[in-house]
Amino acid sequence: MRHMRWGFLVVGLCALMGGTGCGGKQAEIKEDRLTVGRVQGEVKVGMSAAQVAELLGSPNIVTTDDKRREVWIYDKVSTDRVDTASSSYAGLIILGANSSDRSSSQRQRTLTIIIKYDEDKKVRDFAYNSTQF
């Protein structure tokens, strides 16, 4: 009975850790693939759609232009929130005072990438827009 409990504990910990170190596949954490620098430095006219997908991942939107050529749109919005707290304490032997100030700031960023393909599914043009507010 005691060994059975340990077995459940080990299985539970392995499940909690996503199989890391327990003979399972290690969870892969991918870096943020959509950046202005990546688009500027690595997307080139003439690249195949497969190369772009490998570089940037799948687009959010796939559409066609007036000549039925594919257009891929990547649209990303991220929000960063920073909470700060400052405290000051003052005390006497019997009497104590506590003061605490909390503040929060929020920043949003957007990145839109538009990649236009030709009839052979090669990049013919691309554009991007990045904002931060």
What does this molecule look like?
Keywords: Membrane, Signal. This is Outer membrane protein assembly factor BamE domain-containing protein. Residues 42-105 form the Outer membrane protein assembly factor BamE domain. This protein is of the alpha+beta class. The chain has two domains: 1-29; 31-132, Beta-lactamase Inhibitory Protein, Chain:B, domain 1 (2-Layer Sandwich), CATH 3.30.1450. The protein is 23% helix and 44% strand. The protein has three helices and four strands. It has helices at residues 2-16, 36-42, 49-56; strands at residues 61-64, 70-91, 96-117, 123-132. A four-stranded antiparallel beta sheet has the order 1-2-3-4, with no helix packed on it. A hairpin with a 4-residue loop joins strand 2 (70-91) and strand 3. The radius of gyration is 26 Å and the shape is elongated. The model is unreliable at 2-31 (pLDDT under 50).
Topology:
Blueprint: H1 2-16, H2 36-42, H3 49-56, E1 61-64, E2 70-91, E3 96-117, E4 123-132
Antiparallel strand pairs: 1-2, 2-3, 3-4
Could you tell me the radius of gyration in angstroms? 26 Å
Q: Count the strands?
A: 4
Known CATH architecture of the largest domain: 2-Layer Sandwich
How is the quaternary structure best described?
Answer: single chain
The gross shape turns out to be elongated
Task: Indicate the CATH topology of the largest domain.
Answer: Beta-lactamase Inhibitory Protein, Chain:B, domain 1
Q: Which structural class do you get from the secondary structure elements?
A: alpha+beta
Number of helices: 3
**Biggest beta sheet summary:** 4 strands, antiparallel
- Mean pLDDT reading: 78
Question: What is the succession of H and E elements?
Answer: HHHEEEE
The CATH class of the largest domain turns out to be Alpha Beta
In which order are the strands of the major sheet placed?
1-2-3-4
Number of domains: 2
The percentage of residues in β strands lies in 35-45%
Q: Uncertain runs with pLDDT below 50, 5 residues or more?
A: 2-31
Distance between the termini: 59 Å
Level of helix content?
A: 10-25%
